[in-house]
Write a structure and sequence with these properties.
This protein has 13 helices and 16 strands. By secondary structure, the chain is an alpha/beta fold. It has two domains: 3-134 and 173-370, 3-Layer(aba) Sandwich (Rossmann fold), CATH 3.40.50.720; 135-172, no CATH class. The strands form five sheets. The chain has a seven-stranded parallel beta sheet, sandwiched between helices. The chain has a three-stranded antiparallel beta sheet with strand order 7-6-8, with no helix packed on it. A hairpin with a 3-residue loop joins β6 (135-137) and β7. α1 crosses α9 and α4 (64-71) packs across α5. The longest helix is centred in the N-terminal third of the chain and has 21 residues, at 93-113. The protein is globular and about 60 Å long.
């Protein structure tokens, strides 16, 4: 029986991973600070799901002493703990760096300088490290556009253009060899985390695996956090009877991947030697528009709220990014089991069993506007 440490193990992905690993016979330790933004004030449902399935350490990855306690006797570390809001990262820069970069640095320093039994590391990276995904220019082939400019977006021209000829580009799937050019502090953090773990893993002889998760959703996702998770944000608004205001032209897209697929891919990375020293995309491999998400949720909730396309935009937001899963399929045998229709149905069924949360979305938008990050 292997001992496994999950940092951020009381979070959305961590709890589902803890449950599945418990069922497989692993001995699990969870290090988590039970952040109020995710867990609220009392014992959250996420925490209740795992508290009897693990050794729980309430601690913080910013605290090296908490790491020392957590790492003791572990065979595998799955490092999920992170601050995750893309927009929020642009004005809470110090906090994001402390948690995401220094938290990871503490782990690696202890593995470098103390006796331990760790034989594998898994790090949660993100599609955010790519910034815009891969595109094709009919004149110049494969290309990675720079951040969209304010003047184009102000005119309602939202699609990325070729950096050379300024022609509108055609979308392509993003593979692991695609250009890394993050457009947020969060994306930069994730790039650094990934590089730190992969570099130090090689240096220390500890096989390491990085997973670039796309937009993860499903039962257990926070319905009260207005900074992350578009399906949760839209659901909370709809259930509070509030209209949906969709940015740009509604045709911006993301790769929405169901929680169980993410956890299954992560477990393959833990258990398969073929994963060692490799980096993998984890997604559905399909681009779904924000307009499609909004309309699907409205139908599933049988709601009569209005959906408006506002043309507003947020500086630093990407237009498209969806995963090429060829590498994960070939090396890990990973294929997603949930398409968007099946996944959203499971998500909505779960949401209907939950207490309706206060809708704090307008407050989060005001914060972004006050910081000059939204037009």
């Amino acid at each position: 029986m292997k001992n496994i440490l999950i940092t951020g193990g009381a979070g959305f992905i961590g709890t589902r991973l803890c449950e599945k690993l418990f069922d497989k016979g692993y001995k699990i330790t969870v290090l988590d600070n039970l952040s109020p933004q995710i867990h609220g004030d009392g014992e959250s449902n996420l925490f209740k799901k795992i508290k009897d399935k693990c050794i729980f350490i309430k601690g913080d990855v910013r605290n090296k002493e908490d790491w020392k306690i957590a790492i003791k006797g572990q065979d595998i570390i799955v490092h999920l703990a992170a601050e995750t809001g893309t927009g929020q990262s642009m004005y809470e820069v110090e906090k994001y760096n402390e948690v995401n970069i220094m938290g990871t640095a503490h782990m690696l320093e202890l593995l470098s300088n103390t006796n331990h039994s760790v034989k594998k590391m898994i790090v949660a990276s993100s599609r955010a490290i790519y910034g815009e995904g891969k595109y094709i220019c009919e004149n110049h082939g494969e290309t990675y556009p720079t951040q969209r400019n304010d003047s184009d977006m102000n005119k309602g021209e939202f699609n990325p253009k070729c950096n050379i000829c300024n022609k509108e580009l055609m979308l392509s799937s993003t593979d692991e060899n695609s250009k890394i050019h993050p457009s947020s502090i969060y994306g930069i953090n994730k790039q650094q985390q990934e590089q730190m773990v992969m570099l130090m893993g090689e240096s220390l002889g500890i096989p390491s695996v990085a997973f670039r998760y796309q937009n993860v959703y499903g039962p257990g996702q926070s319905l009260s956090n207005p900074y992350t998770g578009i399906l949760s944000i839209f659901s909370t608004r709809i259930l509070n009877g509030n209209d949906l205001d969709i940015y740009e032209d509604g045709l911006e897209s993301r790769d929405f991947v169901f929680i169980d697929d993410v956890v299954d891919a992560t477990i393959l990375g833990i258990e398969k030697e073929e994963a060692n020293s490799e980096i993998f995309n984890v997604g559905s491999g399909v681009a779904t528009t924000v307009k499609e998400v909004a309309e699907s949720l409205k139908d599933f909730y049988s709601s009569d709220i209005n959906i408006s396309i506002s043309g507003k935009y947020r500086l630093g937001d990407i237009r498209h990014n969806y995963a090429d899963l060829t590498k994960a399929k070939n090396l890990l045998g990973f294929s997603p089991k949930f398409d968007f229709k099946k996944g959203i149905s499971e998500f909505v069924t779960w949401v209907k069993t939950q207490e309706i949360k206060e809708d704090n979305y307008d407050k989060s938008v005001k914060e972004l506007k006050d910081k000059g990050l939204m037009k």
